[in-house]
Amino acid sequence: MTADGLTISNLAGMAPLVNDASAICTTYAPRNSSVRYEKRQCRFRHTGLPTGRFLFYVRFNKNYLDWQALTIASAGAKKSLRFAHDPREEGDLRVNLRRAGGPYQIRLLARADKGRPPVSVSNTTEPGIELDLTARSQRIGGMKSGAYQLDLIQKKPIGSGAYVLTPVRSWTVRVTAGKERTYLLE
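^ that's the sequence the OP posted. Answer follows.
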């Protein structure tokens, strides 16, 4: 979110490769985002950011999501963040669904320790994990330990692979490193 209260976003991404690779997004030039994978290291760069408080995030593997909030106090300021995938920080989440009327999907959004978003933005721009519930009991493995908002969303089919998504309920859940935590969704 900019100092003027405007929510902005940009991203660049790719699957980590064996060889060197890079990607850049210039859609919002001169505000650009790039990622470079070289010698088993990823480097991200965001240029042209205005002053404000921003959320930076990376995803490793399927469900490991890491994020940090950073304040840019002056135009042209240079700041650095470091992200690292640490398998010792991984935990698993199991959701047990007792509600009829599916199909459903869940969305897991990053939360600070008190259950609030890391920065004040709409949940359409928040980092998260979305997946269809394919069973009454489903495990989401390899998540970074911490707090998440779990949204249960009903998927009502309307033909030819299209759905109407209706939010049902939200919970604050925690993932604990080295453990599986179970939550009952009623």
